[in-house]
Amino acid sequence: MTKTHEGALLLGEKAPLPASPDEAELDLVPNPHKDAAYLVRFTAPEFTSLCPVTGQPDFAHVVIDYVPGDWLVESKSLKLYLGSFRNHGAFHEDCTLRIARDLVGAMTPKWLRIGGYWYPRGGIPIDVFWQTGAPPEGLWLPDQGVPPYRGRG
Length: 153
Description:
Elements: E1 3-6, E2 25-30, E3 40-50, E4 57-67, E5 71-73, H1 75-83, H2 92-107, E6 111-118, E7 127-131
């Protein structure tokens, strides 16, 4: 299970890449605008994990959109968390939903969605999408900006 703690403990500190998502830590900081429904987007265009069968690397463009509740996830800790999948063997669907559920469990956002746009293996790209429910009313929700597969830019 991914650890969480309050405050930006990893920010400004030398922090090695965790060996696995289970060893990663997510720093949470207070949301200074709890009264507003606004969107936060993190884009990881070079996400990697390992195929659990072959051990070969898998690559994805991951887009995380969320509406904060009481907490924000600090970006350095999120970067280290996402990097911890580099040597983690799991299928595309499992990686994508693991990230989403870990973030929901850590910070309890008002709303979260994730798009895992996986590059082809065996000629077939696999895209995985998940969200917690309907987005808050009146929220400006931009397109995730990842083109349909055609070499993905």
